Amino acid sequence: MLPYQTLEEAASALGRNLTFAETLWFNYSASKSDYVLYLHNILFLFVIFSVVPLPLVFAEVLSWAGLDRYKIQPKVRLPFSDMLKCYKDVMRMFILIVGPLQLVSYPSVQIIGIRTGLPLPSGWEMLCQLLVYFLVEDYTNYWIHRFLHNKWGYEKIHRVHHEYTAPIGFAAPYAHWAEILILGIPSFLGPAMVPGHMVTFWSWIALRQVEAIETHSGYDFPWTPTKYIPFYGGAEYHDYHHYVGGQSQSNFASVFTYCDFIYGTDKGFRYQKKILKKLKEESNAVQNGGSYNNSTVDLKSD
Ligand SMILES: [Zn+2]
Ligand SMILES: [Zn+2]
């Protein structure tokens, strides 16, 4: 809740006129408590989990022309009923775990000092903070995820997330309730280290989930803007982790590729990419009149 009654009061407290965005924020948030503003995350998460994967559902079920060639595992095609079941399971966890977690976690947001007042953060400030949040979450998530691939962690908890060996958008938040709670820690760590404005916090929660849906989309679209982000893993990268399944010791990172590179857990993925590239080149050579037998695939892993 803002400590000003009017726009004029806010402007005189800031010592300048409010920007357009600040005026919007004032009109929207002035009479709402910080708790209510924080709980907006429940609505955002519900909309993101429900709406963002929908184009992917249409692409998969209707085989939208042209998109099939971007499927990472083209032989796997889930019927609509399976996707609906996944969404229902996600919503059940949303009602039982995600929503209640938001309801009770407000004191932690108060303690770390997420602010709701004016001035609003600059775009540059938001960008820097979001970058920190993504990096901190990625690093922490890497080690928790890697730990969950030990025998106990996998069988008791992480196995649920791996039920989809060919991921779909709805399956991004599909996980055991304990995993949902555990992975809330890396998400919270960045904002705890570099607390910002509520708008930045909302953006973080939303962007992280949209990123997870893209990563689990099952499609490797060449035009996605995330292709321009350095060290970004993307759909193909995480798809490989699901494809290998419980035995996977590769591609643990959730967002970027640097952790797997540094700790040597991307070797299987890089080896497979190398082999596939070689096979493709040879197949092109055959089509262009060359002979497949003229070259051999080096099956030795590096
Ligand atoms: Zn895993
Ligand atoms: Zn996954």
Automatic annotation (TrEMBL):
InterPro entries named in the record: Fatty_acid_hydroxylase (IPR006694), Sterol_Desaturase_Related (IPR050307)
One GO cellular component term noted in the UniProt record for this chain: endoplasmic reticulum membrane
UniProt KW keywords: Membrane, Transmembrane, Transmembrane helix
Species annotation: Prunus persica
Pfam families the record matches: FA_hydroxylase
The protein, known as: Fatty acid hydroxylase domain-containing protein
Record-stated family: Belongs to the sterol desaturase family.
Transmembrane segments annotated in the record for this chain: 42-67, 93-112
Highest taxon, organism lineage: Eukaryota
Claim: Transmembrane is one of the keywords in the record: yes
Recorded coiled-coil stretches: none
Annotated localization: Membrane
Annotated PANTHER family: STEROL DESATURASE (PTHR11863)
Keyword Transmembrane included in the entry's annotation: yes
Gene Ontology terms: biological process: sterol biosynthetic process
MF GO annotations: C-4 methylsterol oxidase activity; iron ion binding
Residue ranges constituting the Fatty acid hydroxylase domain according to the UniProt record: 131-265
